[in-house]
Amino acid sequence: MYQQVDSFVSYLAVVKGLSKNSVESYGRDILKFVLYLDNNGVTDAARVDHRNILDFLSHIREQGMNTRSTARILVSIKQFFKFLLTEKVIINDPTFLIRAPKMKISIPDVLSLEDVENLLSAPEENSLEGIRDKAMLEVLYATGVRVSELVQLELNSVNFELGYLLIYGKGGKERIVPVGQVAAKKLNEYLNTSRPKLLKSRKSIYVFVTRRGSRMTRQGFWKLIKGYALKKEINKKLSPHTLRHSFATHLLERGADLRTIQLMLGHSDIATTQIYTHVERERLKEVHKKYHPRS
């Protein structure tokens, strides 16, 4: 089955167009599953049945894997057998009747408007990097794009005249996201002043670059965000998605509908976007508890 795993990984990268991180994640999950089968004497995909899969899921739970990670691995296994079915390697899908474990809804951490303003004001705009970082933070909060989408933004995807960015999301899906006047101003300032000096005589198709002339990385920018949060004494738990979550929550609080937020975030299923209604409910409960005289 190891050869079939290689074929599956190639299919995800070439045909489905998934990102490198997603492909590697699928590959790790399936290799872990196939190794388990191998150790238990199952080496032919056609011989795998639902009991083998359930035994494997029980095995990884006993090893301490949480519900969310177990559900993710099950998705990988389902995709793997769907691929084998399409390739006619198997004639029946052993995952057909297996349902994902129920997960407790995880409410994303969001920043208050005050914390957002503090974070956005953190970069010193008297340096080339500070001008760049200010533009990146403003665009991140103004658009709600993923950090990975921000650092991969190309010059030809920026349209100042119409005020939007063309974003390539998961699976290579395109979406148009409005950028807003403040973020557009800072982005334009960066492109005309800081970026040419960072690049010097070098060329790059990417909007956000370093002094070495290379594209800013997701990890590099995430370190910058943490540094700026520390500088401004923002003590809330941060993740690479914190500004994205804050963007969506603040829009919802001001009356934006879920469908519009879904389109801007690039969620394929509105159920994913509905998590932000839970954020709003939790915030309302906190306000009620804090201010109601009988709470």
Labels describing this entry:
295 residues; mainly alpha; DNA polymerase, domain 1; hpI Integrase, Chain A; 2 domains; 57% helix
- State the secondary-structure class: mainly alpha
Shape: globular
CATH topology of the largest domain: hpI Integrase, Chain A
Q: In what order do the strands lie side by side in the largest sheet? A: 1-2-3
The CATH superfamily of the largest domain is known as Intergrase catalytic core
User: Largest beta sheet, briefly?
Assistant: 3 strands, antiparallel
CATH structural architecture of the largest domain: Orthogonal Bundle
Number of helices: 13
- Average pLDDT over all residues: 87
Poorly predicted sequence stretches spanning 5 or more consecutive residues: none
Count of individual domains: 2
Number of extended strands:
3
N-to-C SSE string, H for helix and E for strand: HHHHHHHEEEHHHHHH
| Residues in helix, % | 55-70%
Taking all Cα atoms into account, the compactness measure Rg is 23 Å
- Identify the CATH class of the largest domain: Mainly Alpha
N/C terminus separation? 59 Å
Short description:
The protein is mainly alpha-helical.
Descriptive account of the structure:
It is a single chain. The chain is mainly alpha-helical. The chain has two domains: 2-86, DNA polymerase, domain 1; 113-290, Intergrase catalytic core (hpI Integrase, Chain A), CATH 1.10.443. It contains 13 helices and three strands; from the N terminus they run αααααααβββαααααα. Strands 1-2-3 form a three-stranded antiparallel β-sheet. Strand 2 and strand 3 (174-178) form a beta hairpin. Helix 1 runs antiparallel to helix 2 (20-39) and helix 10 (242-253) crosses helix 13. The chain starts with a helix and ends with a helix.
